[in-house]
């Protein structure tokens, strides 16, 4: 596991050691883009951009999908992990909130039962 | 669900679900043990609302709570902890239909905030609460989901910067 993480970090560092590749990640953080879009944006040849995206993809920072003749790039599984973790914390905080709501509703229910009984007397 | 009858004496712990259902939307669901009119009351009466909206396990407390729960009405909550400056959460109720539906805006941020819709559906003395949060754009939800907590990418960037700083400080060549 430690070995895996180390290898993973190494490839992330290598991927991020280049200004263009950091720019590509920032760009994909705003919106998905095709390799052609990215090449234009960073004033680069298609082949050059393909190489950069390849390095980012190997590091898990970017995922690509080819639809027809266009290869679309988006942020990769590393980013997804962060989202999943956020969603779980979000869920937990709502659970805590609803636990308290359960208590409040439970108290209201008891009060209603007592009031109902008193009315029937 | 009907096949498993819950014991009257041992209330089962209900569990919330949270899901990103689209580029712009989050959905939270949870069953609450009580009829819908009581859940609606607990959600719309400030003196009840403030008992549960900020659970004791949260690192902050609710300092004040003003709510005018009717279509077009406004709300304002202030939260804080210790000596830090209180944070205000405020917005407007776009729709209030007792006892089944409340829709409100979240206007505290710099950018346009999400619209929250909560619905209450009664099921055999219990209430299914479904909460939608609709963000103005994919970018806004993406940003919300990585704020407060650094994303892996940001952390990696920082580690990289530290490493580079150490290298240059020790006169290392790249």
Summarize the structure.
The complex is a heterodimer of chains A (about 120) and B (about 170). Chain A is mainly α. In chain A, about 75% of the residues lie in helices and about 10% in strands.
What are its keywords?
heterodimer, A: 121 residues, mainly alpha, Arc Repressor Mutant, subunit A, 3-stranded antiparallel β-sheet, 3 strands, rod-shaped, B: 174 residues, alpha+beta, Alpha-D-Glucose-1,6-Bisphosphate, Chain A, domain 4, 2 domains, 8 strands, 36% strand, globular
List the helices and strands and how they pair.
The complex is a heterodimer of chains A (121) and B (174).
Chain A: H1 2-16, H2 19-30, E1 33-34, H3 35-41, H4 46-58, E2 62-67, E3 70-75, H5 77-120
Antiparallel strand pairs in A: 1-3, 2-3
Chain B: E1 17-22, E2 25-32, H1 36-44, H2 46-52, E3 61-67, E4 74-80, E5 87-97, E6 101-105, E7 115-123, E8 126-134, H3 138-146, H4 152-169
Antiparallel strand pairs in B: 1-2, 2-8, 3-4, 4-5, 5-6, 6-7, 7-8
Provide a descriptive summary of the structure in words:
The complex is a heterodimer of chains A (121) and B (174). Chain A has two domains: 2-75, Winged helix-like DNA-binding domain superfamily/Winged helix DNA-binding domain (Arc Repressor Mutant, subunit A), CATH 1.10.10; 77-121. Chain A is built from five helices and three strands. Chain A has helices spanning 2-16, 19-30, 35-41, 46-58, 77-120, and strands spanning 33-34, 62-67, 70-75. With 174 residues, chain B is α+β, with helices and mostly antiparallel strands. Chain B folds into two domains: 17-136, START domain (Alpha-D-Glucose-1,6-Bisphosphate, Chain A, domain 4, 2-Layer Sandwich); 142-174. Chain B has an eight-stranded antiparallel sheet, covered by helices on one side. Mean pLDDT of chain B is 82; it is low at 149-154. At the A-B interface, helix 1, helix 2 and helix 5 of A face strand 1, strand 2, helix 1, helix 2 and helix 3 of B.
């Amino acid at each position: 596991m430690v070995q895996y993480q180390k290898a993973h970090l190494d490839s992330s560092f290598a991927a991020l050691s280049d200004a263009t590749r950091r720019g590509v990640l920032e760009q994909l953080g705003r919106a998905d883009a095709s390799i052609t879009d990215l090449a234009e944006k960073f004033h680069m040849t298609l082949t050059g951009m393909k190489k950069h995206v390849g390095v980012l993809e190997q590091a898990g920072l970017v995922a690509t999908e080819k639809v027809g003749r266009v290869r679309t790039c988006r942020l990769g599984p590393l980013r997804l992990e962060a989202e999943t973790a956020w969603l779980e914390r979000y869920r937990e905080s709502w659970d805590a909130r609803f636990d308290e709501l359960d208590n409040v509703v439970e108290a209201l229910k008891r009060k209603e039962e007592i009031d109902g009984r008193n009315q029937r007397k | 669900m009907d096949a498993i009858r819950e014991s009257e004496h041992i209330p089962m712990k209900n569990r919330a679900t949270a899901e990103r259902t689209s580029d712009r939307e989050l959905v939270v669901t949870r069953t609450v043990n009580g009829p819908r009119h009581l859940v609606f009351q607990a959600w719309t009466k400030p003196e009840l609302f403030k008992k549960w909206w900020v659970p004791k396990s949260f690192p902050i407390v609710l300092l004040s709570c003003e709510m005018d729960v009717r279509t077009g009405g406004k709300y304002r909550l202030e939260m804080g902890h210790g000596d830090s400056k209180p944070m205000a959460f405020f917005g407007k109720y776009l729709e209030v239909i007792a006892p089944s539906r409340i829709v409100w805006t979240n206007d505290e941020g710099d950018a346009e905030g999400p619209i929250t819709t909560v619905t209450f559906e009664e099921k055999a003395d219990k209430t299914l609460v479904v909460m939608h949060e609709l963000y103005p754009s994919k970018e806004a939800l993406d940003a919300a989901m990585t704020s407060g907590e650094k994303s892996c990418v940001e952390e990696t960037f920082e580690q990289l910067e530290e490493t580079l700083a150490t290298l240059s400080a020790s006169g290392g060549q790249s």
